[in-house]
């Protein structure tokens, strides 16, 4: 039986991506199955790289920019090293949708020429490669967002003049700051999934444990960054899509409040749904890399170029105030945190529990107050998010899958055959959401009575998911991440440790999988072994500067705790 | 034929409002018809007041607070003076929905006791009376919003525990700042009208010319403030509802961007519609009064109490930067403004044209650059706003009118029998609105090429309506105000002059009324004689500090220009 037409197109596209990898960077031997080699990060991928490439690609964005903005490393050298490593990454875990290394190297040459001429960088990101989730439009590059029906079109529209000419606002800003763009990373078609799978590139695996998912929907970013095929990338988050892949790949990831990073000109699912906005944010191996690119983007004054961005420049004063609170460690007016192990829905797996305990221990060792976080019902937040995701009854998804006739992956959390809501019902939903946000805010304020610092908690710690990087098709509850989007709070993923089958054992009284609705107990110590474990630090709306400062501090102190 | 039940209820409510006025403050003689006495402001209303009451009520909010926060005037004395004048105002033009003078005087007594005890005020608004549009909930006071069906209920819900106990967040904040609340002002039922008319209090007339409307929907505020029955009040704006009554009553009025003043807990029409948000803002006879109360409200950190408010404290730095630009007057890098006389829809009447010319002249005399403002189609903005206002097909209006069976006034710009939009159509509308906002933003940026200052314009000047305070039922085009809400820009109404039948004559070539769609040419020099003329100063999103600073400066300079 012949393949349907869409398979021919998706096969061709998949092959075209591979063909964009220069011959010299192609793997000549087959990649061993995950049952033989689970982890392809670190020494595995490094065997294909030379010492200088390793030095460059294992530096973080801050260190790289320190060298590329001062002429110590040429932009071309750095770009080539990341292109090479990204090419390897894609061949190992299938994490790229678009490869445009030639254009990147041309851009890098121009940057080097600029530097040679002016003895100064173009901007703070001069010569820094930045990867982008395949929602961003880049001139001369396709955007499929994982839809077969988008191949050779502009967002599914054939013969649209914007095809190949459009550039997203953030892309323009990154270029103006000196960044080099070289690849776009894989996503689940629809973006509405905690795994990354589509009919073009297939499944993006977790590089640390190839039995598991890289997460989603910014899953390609997560996998590429875990393999150090990129120093920093941008993803999007409407239910956890930055924080999940960050957490599943031992990365930091920032989900900012809406209105800080420009979404202007970026492709999206269910665009125009404005009850709960998707937001863009960075992922990187170090917290300071997030701060660096976030601050750099704000320096371009995006509020004059995207009508939904707020005129809110980077606030050093908020950083200073946070640092003062950190300094006060052990003082009764120092930092206070909430901590939540259970959202009332899904019990967390042993590795996540251990990670949470480690963070709690670390904060207490530092003399900060830690109180139990017992907020308004997260089940309510979960319901609100689900209703909003399904608001259009699947019209958008149906349309985009329908362009090619391709199938929808089972991991997508939105149905194609829902009921489309009407204006008055949407208004009621918006009110319910606002009332929930108010209730949560009042709860937050009420913790001033409990912290002993005279203030409410400065932030709170909770899991990102019930499990570490998940077994395919076992991601059943996104409520640990989606409630943050309902509240529009900033949240930073903080990597903590790795699942360890010898210590993270299933307790005797653990509930059986799927016995109760939303109970998440299909824990398998052996399969999860080695998977990254992370938590998230959640802050008050628009306090990105405070959360980034705290995330860097807490991350460093966790590392210290682990060395004890 | 007997009146339907709702008339009995509305009559009783109207009478109850009048009955709340103490006997000593009731007018004993009938008010002469407007054909005899058009203007009941100034000397007309003052004949019922003693010298001290006049001194107090003709001071602005800043001067009043300077005396009440230092013990020079007692809160009781000030409150009584405004209660008296508000009582007169209501009897002259029917501008109040709720009168709670007794509670206000009790509150004022407590403030005086506090001051006597602490030798310090409770807050910056200590002892300052503040009037509120009848959307705000105040403990112990009803909210009808002009709906007969809301009498004896909470927002139309009978036996709701919130009835009489609820207080809006802004009300709480005003109290915490020391403000005294004493009355709520009239609105058109639905709030969707540029005139103020409902089946409870009837029609609110313009105190300066009682042949004309006071504007709407914050019309009661406009009328009360014009009569100095209040030093400052709060209204709301989704299509011009603060700026129209401000302009029609020779007042300053601020429509801030959404997210600065808390709407939490305030009744609304079509609540939950979040494609275009209604916003709250102050109206007052002086620009500095707006700044004073706006800044005071921000000092309460409303972002910790309303989830939709942005953490954006009052920015003195933006005020200072603006003042520096003002100082540079005559310098090529000083201020630059756009000016727009015609929106492509409705030609403005002669008084408005003269007012606009006066402002242009003033700016040029001061050495500032003035360029023609030729933005993207305002017809498009008008269409977007209309589609959004009608999004629910009238479900909300039908419900609230249906509670009593009362009739909808012809001035309401939303139909009860429209078609309710579905989620996917709303999403498309949201996209169209965002694209329009982007197009307008790009146009604004492009003026950097034209100003000669090296920057785009600092703001632009345009009419608020084609006409001065309007002849009843002749308000045909709200596009001059509603485009600002579509863009979510801050805008300040600046009063300029008054219509004058001897100079503002109908030009020979003026189009006849209603010959073309949207042409607004039913100008009648005699009827409009004496009506206030105003313009609006529109700024970039969230630049309220800059616009308030400029409005104060421009207003003062216009006064100087008129004295020449």
From TrEMBL, chains A, B:
Residue span, Amidase domain: 78-548
Protein family: Belongs to the amidase family.
Keyword Hydrolase carried by entry: yes
Domain of life: Eukaryota
E.C. code: 3.5.1.4
Catalytic residue list: 133 (charge relay system), 217 (charge relay system), 241 (acyl-ester intermediate)
Sites where the protein binds substrate: 191, 217, 238-241
Keyword Protein transport: no
PANTHER family: AMIDASE, AMIDASE-RELATED-RELATED
Keywords: Hydrolase
Name recorded for this polypeptide: amidase
Pfam families: Amidase
Gene Ontology MF, one: amidase activity
InterPro entries attached to this UniProt entry: Amidase_CS (IPR020556), Amidase_dom (IPR023631), AS_sf (IPR036928)
Reaction(s) catalysed by this chain's protein: a monocarboxylic acid amide + H2O = a monocarboxylate + NH4(+)
SUPFAM superfamilies: Amidase signature (AS) enzymes (SSF75304)
């Amino acid at each position: 039986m012949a393949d349907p037409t869409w398979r021919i197109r998706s096969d061709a596209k998949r092959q075209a991506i591979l063909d964009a990898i220069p011959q010299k960077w192609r793997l000549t031997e087959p990649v061993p199955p995950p049952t033989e080699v689970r982890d392809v990060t670190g020494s595995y991928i490094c065997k294909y790289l030379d010492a200088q490439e390793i030095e460059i690609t294992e530096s973080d964005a801050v260190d790289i920019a320190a060298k590329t903005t001062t002429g110590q490393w040429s932009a071309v050298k750095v770009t080539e090293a990341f292109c090479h490593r990204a090419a390897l990454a894609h061949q190992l875990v299938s994490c790229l949708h678009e490869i445009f290394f030639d254009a990147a190297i041309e851009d890098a040459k121009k940057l080097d020429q600029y530097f040679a001429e002016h003895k100064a960088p173009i901007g703070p990101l001069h010569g820094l490669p930045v990867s982008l989730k395949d929602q961003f439009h880049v001139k001369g590059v396709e955007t499929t967002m994982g839809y077969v029906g988008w191949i050779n079109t502009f967002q599914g529209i054939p013969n649209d003049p914007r095809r190949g000419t459009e550039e997203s606002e953030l892309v323009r800003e990154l270029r103006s700051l000196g960044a080099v763009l070289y690849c776009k990373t894989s996503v689940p078609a629809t973006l509405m999934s905690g795994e990354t799978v589509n009919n073009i590139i297939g499944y993006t695996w977790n590089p640390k444990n190839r039995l598991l998912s890289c997460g989603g929907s910014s899953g390609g970013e997560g996998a590429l960054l875990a393999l150090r095929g990129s120093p920093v990338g941008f993803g999007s988050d409407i239910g956890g899509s930055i924080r999940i892949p960050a957490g599943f790949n031992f990365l930091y990831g920032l989900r900012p409040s809406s209105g800080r990073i420009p979404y202007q000109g970026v492709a999206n699912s269910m665009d125009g749904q404005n009850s709960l906005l998707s937001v863009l944010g960075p992922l990187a191996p170090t917290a300071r890399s997030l701060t660096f690119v976030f601050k750099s983007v704000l320096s371009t004054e995006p509020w004059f170029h995207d009508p939904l961005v707020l005129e809110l420049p980077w606030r050093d004063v908020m950083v200073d105030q946070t640092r003062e609170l950190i300094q006060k460690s052990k003082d009764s007016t120092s930092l206070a945190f909430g901590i939540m192990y259970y959202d009332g829905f899904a019990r967390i797996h042993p590795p996540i529990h251990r990670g949470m305990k480690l963070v709690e221990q670390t904060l207490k060792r530092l003399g900060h107050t830690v109180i139990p976080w017992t907020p308004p019902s997260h089940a309510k937040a979960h319901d609100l998010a689900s209703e909003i995701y399904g608001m259009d009854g699947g019209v958008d998804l149906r349309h985009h899958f329908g362009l090619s006739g391709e199938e929808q992956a089972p991991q997508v959390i939105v149905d194609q055959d829902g009921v489309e809501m009407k204006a008055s019902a949407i208004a009621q939903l918006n009110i319910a959401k606002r009332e929930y946000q108010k209730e949560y805010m009042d709860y937050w304020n009420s913790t001033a009575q409990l912290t002993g610092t005279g203030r409410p908690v400065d932030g709170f710690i909770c899991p990102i998911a019930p499990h570490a990087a998940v077994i395919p098709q076992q991601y059943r509850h996104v409520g640990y991440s989606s409630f943050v989007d309902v509240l529009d709070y900033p949240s930073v993923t903080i990597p903590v440790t790795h699942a360890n089958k010898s210590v993270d054992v299933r307790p005797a009284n653990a509930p059986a999988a799927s016995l109760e609705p939303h109970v998440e107990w299909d824990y398998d110590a052996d399969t999860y072994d080695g998977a990254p474990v992370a938590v998230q630090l959640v802050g008050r709306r628009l306090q990105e500067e405070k959360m980034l400062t705290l995330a860097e501090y807490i991350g460093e102190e966790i590392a210290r705790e682990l060395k004890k």
